[in-house]
Design a protein that fits this description.
This protein is of the alpha+beta class and about 190 residues long. The protein is built from six helices and six strands. Strand 3 and strand 4 form a beta hairpin. The mean pLDDT is about 90.
Amino acid sequence: TEVRVLVENVVDTLVPVTEGRFQVEVPADVTTFGRISAGSNGTMFLSDGTPLDVIIDEESTVTSKYPKISVTEKMNAYNAAEKVLMDEYMGKQKEIFADTLKTQEENSAAFETFFDEFIVRYRAHHVDAVEANIDNFISVLALNNLRGELEDAQLSELVNSLLPQLQENKYVKNMKDALSARLETAEGMMFKD
């Protein structure tokens, strides 16, 4: 059995698994994500220079032996907080629309009230993650979740706050190009030939 370890532009290799274990050294680079997979299961990690423990199954996990300094552990915390938010959203949506004592209009109004409050927290979670991680790939994950949630000028400001090596990341470059195109052609902007 083998696992595939992929860190874009850094490493793409198959590593043998012996007695359920494998070991591989990957250069530290928190400006891009890595992926470890076996068969149809896998998980993401950030190569932060700390030893990582990987469990590959239906609910694959990556944890660091040094969680206080690990960027992968920061990503795990970010993802866990995201899951809590999304579980709350889905649960509340289900609860509101399952209320058969109210009309569809009343349920829709209740959901809209919940959503207006929820989206403020959702956006804040991701903006905070960008601002706290301008030097690593967590900011790119958070920016991706903010697409369509912020005005282009706000999103552009966050993208431009990233460290230069992250701004060279292909995902960030694509986002910057799309934002620039929209901002340059926005209503009220001077037409360019």
